[in-house]
Amino acid sequence: MTLKRNFTLVGLLAFALVTALFAPSVARAQTSSAQGKFTLPFETRWGRATLPAGDYSFRMESAASPQLIQVWGQGVTVLVATSGGTSEQKVADHSALIILRHGKKGTVRALYLEHLGLTFNYIPPKAERQIVAEMPQLIQQLPVQAGAR
Predict the structure, then answer these.
(1) Residue-wise pLDDT tens for the chain (149 aa)?
(2) Do residues 36 and 57 touch, judged by C-beta distance below 8 A?
C-alpha cells in the first residue's frame, strides 16, 4: 500500500516538474498573436501557396497549435499552416522569413518572430521536396516587420 502511494507521489511530482518547465512557453504561445509586413523579391512557395514578388502583410491570431497565418498582398490572400512545428530556436537576429532560394524562386522554410521568441517551421509539399533537394540552394533571410496585435 505504501509503495503504491509513494509511486503515485513520484508520478505527480514528475508531472508537476514537466508542467513547470513547459508552462511558460505554452502560455506565451496560446496568448500571443502577431501581425506584420515583408517584401518578397522573387516568386516564393509558402506551403501550398505560390506568392509572386511584392509587398505582403500577415496576421496570426494565436501562436497556439495549429498555427495559421493569413498572408495577403499582390492580389493574393492565403492561409498557411505550420507544417514543421514550432520551436524556441532563434534562427535570426531579428524577425525574418527564412527562405531556400533555388534559381529565381524560393521556398519558405521558417518564420521567426522575435517578439514571440518563436520559429514557425514549414516543410515543402511532398511533390516539391525532390525538386528542391536536387537544385543548388541558397538560404536567405528576408526581414519582417512584426509585432503583437
Answers:
(1) 555 555 555 554 445 444 444 444 444 444 478 999 999 999 999 988 999 999 999 999 887 766 899 999 999 999 999 888 899 989 899 999 999 998 899 999 999 999 999 999 998 777 665 555 555 568 899 999 998 87
(2) yes
Residue boundaries of the structural domains of the chain: 1-31, 33-147
